[in-house]
């Protein structure tokens, strides 16, 4: 039976859930969500699996006493302080967590066919007689008939080889080959040339073509030599006065610090003029997807 009290109680619960849903909404500047969330999505309850996945990961580095700005953008790396030797007597919580063996799920333990890790052998398998094919496959592989074992490291020299005498042919072949040295010449007096020049070469007369090729390569007519390291400054440059435009360009650009640039509260705020802007025909043409 519907009574005024039950209707009032239902309306109160509805207003309570609606207020909680509105307060739980995330606000990104002055933007609205593209898709509106349904009432079922706002009042839905997560499953146990979702709750388990939503748990934050344990922070094992909270005892290291490192500043938070160390991991922010634009910070240079610092030298971490070495922990005390007392902390090495017992493994850390992180090592204990990693050393835990992987636990089997309860569903797997209920479905596996046996409880012991030992595989049971049936009586039929114990009394089974192997076939000739299995007996043939069970034989170890035989070595090749011409297989020779590895020799020992020190090779034994026979008495005949130790008492043998080399023939004249072997002695002649054992002599090193004498090669003529062509990169050096015999030493002589200081005024002599390194390489001997024949008389015909000394009395030869160069042709006009040879004289032309022997000339050094001349520089280009428009060649300008390098400037000196010290440039002379003119008097007009010394007494020149900079214009206001040059003074404005000479000022260094002021950039906001990384702390304020990284955490910008107005990062998601859209200007009113941008909301009311209309796209040009060119932008609309570029925004169309490519037809493939």
Shape: flat
What are the segments in which pLDDT stays under 50 over at least 5 consecutive residues?
19-23
Let me know the number of strands: 0
Could you give a short account of the major beta sheet? none
How many helical elements?
Answer: 16
Average pLDDT, all residues: 78
Element-by-element helix/strand order: HHHHHHHHHHHHHHHH
Calculate Rg over CA atoms.
48 Å
Binned strand content: under 5%
Task: State the helical fraction.
Answer: 25-40%
| SSE class | mainly alpha
Calculate the terminal CA-CA distance, rounded to whole Å: 63 Å
InterPro entries: SPMAP2-like (IPR042401), THEG (IPR006623)
Pfam families: THEG (PF14912)
Keywords: Repeat, Signal
Signal peptide: 1-29
What does this structure look like?
- This protein is 35% helix and 0% strand.
- It is mainly α.
- The protein is flat.
- The two termini are 63 Å apart.
- About 2% of the residues have low confidence.
- It comes from Otus sunia (Oriental scops-owl).
- This is Testicular haploid expressed gene protein-like.
- Pfam families: THEG.
Question: Helices, strands, pairings?
Answer:
Blueprint: H1 4-23, H2 39-42, H3 48-53, H4 93-98, H5 106-111, H6 123-126, H7 132-138, H8 159-162, H9 168-174, H10 199-202, H11 208-214, H12 235-238, H13 244-250, H14 258-262, H15 272-275, H16 281-287
What's the short story on this structure?
This is Testicular haploid expressed gene protein-like. Residues 1-29 form the signal peptide. The protein has helices at residues 4-23, 39-42, 48-53, 93-98, 106-111, 123-126, 132-138, 159-162, 168-174, 199-202, 208-214, 235-238, 244-250, 258-262, 272-275, 281-287.
